[in-house]
Design brief:
- The chain is an alpha/beta fold and 283 residues long.
- Helix 8 links the parallel strand 4 and strand 5.
- The chain is elongated and about 85 Å long.
- Helices cover 53% and strands 11% of the residues.
- The termini are close together.
- It has a 6-stranded parallel β-sheet with strand order 3-2-1-4-5-6, with helices on both faces.
Length: 283
């Protein structure tokens, strides 16, 4: 989600959403029942609805992986899933209210569900807008170290530069020389047309990567080296990332198709390379 690395993290965001859902329900109930006292003792039906809505929302949000961190998820996909979770949670709250209390009028239920849905979706859109502007100005950035001078590294760098709202900054693109000391065709092609405004370097060995991640601010390492010919090197890089507590992504070889989505976890290992736009849509 777009706000994975800001002060409001994905872990606390679920509680913010659930509180917003419950507050919207209370306001809608109050507007529908202006003559009923809310304090000092809330009506039993309202209390059951709010408690069940919060519990159901938190459970369904975790179960449906609503808060899996993806920094550049498309807004339509995120809002659709959020809408689905809110609908299911409020439906469970309405059912529990009818079963365990005397219930409420249908219009009140409809107002509470509608207000909760509008509030949570509106809050999400507002947060996306604020953080997108923050990232365009250079804030909330994650710093990447890309390993490999090849077409995949060039496409990633180009996509990052074209979309500053991703909140990603490429610290450097490094490469490790082959044992034979020869330059591969991929490296020659990369060096003939390198990405603009990016620091490029050929390092001596893998230990230089350990020095980079220990002395500089690096949040994630993206390895684009082909695994078959660089198996030992890639394994050592992943060990270094594990020791440093840094996320590592591995994109080993291009695929014949340029479509598909790239799923992200703490350690991503993929032998298929989609288009850069598809790659970043799922980060």
């Amino acid at each position: 989600m777009l706000y994975h690395n800001v002060q409001v993290t994905a872990h606390s965001l679920r509680f913010i959403d659930s509180v917003a859902l419950s507050v919207a329900a209370v306001v809608a109930w109050r507007l529908a029942n202006p003559g009923v006292a809310l304090l000092p003792v809330p009506p039993q039906a309202l209390l059951v609805y709010v408690c069940m809505a919060i519990l159901a929302f938190l459970a369904l949000g975790s179960r449906m992986r609503l808060y899996l961190a993806r920094r550049t998820e498309e807004v339509a996909a995120e809002l659709f899933l959020l809408c689905e979770v809110v609908f299911y949670a409020t439906a469970i709250a309405c059912l529990a209210t009818q079963v365990f209390t005397d219930g409420m009028p249908g219009g009140t239920y409809l107002a509470m569900v509608g207000s909760g849905l509008a509030t949570v979706l509106g809050l999400r859109l507002l947060m996306r807008l604020v953080i997108r502007r923050l990232r365009r100005k250079g804030g909330d950035a994650r710093h990447w170290l890309i390993v490999g001078h090849n077409a995949r590294a060039a496409e990633i760098a180009t996509e990052v530069q074209r979309n500053p709202h991703y909140g990603i900054r490429i610290a450097e693109i490094v490469d490790i020389p082959d044992r034979q000391g020869q330059r591969s065709s991929e490296r020659r092609s990369f060096e003939a047309n390198p990405p603009a405004d990016t620091v490029l370097r050929v390092i001596d060995d893998v230990e230089t990567i350990r020095e980079i991640v220990s002395t500089r601010v690096i949040d994630e390492v993206v390895v684009t080296l082909p695994v078959r010919s660089h198996y030992d090197t890639v394994s050592r890089i992943l060990d270094i990332c594990c020791s440093a507590g840094i996320s590592a992504w591995m994109i080993s070889s291009p695929s014949r198709t340029a479509k598909g989505w790239f799923q992200t976890t703490r350690l991503v290992v993929s032998t298929a390379w989609p288009s850069p736009s598809a790659f970043f849509c799922r980060i």
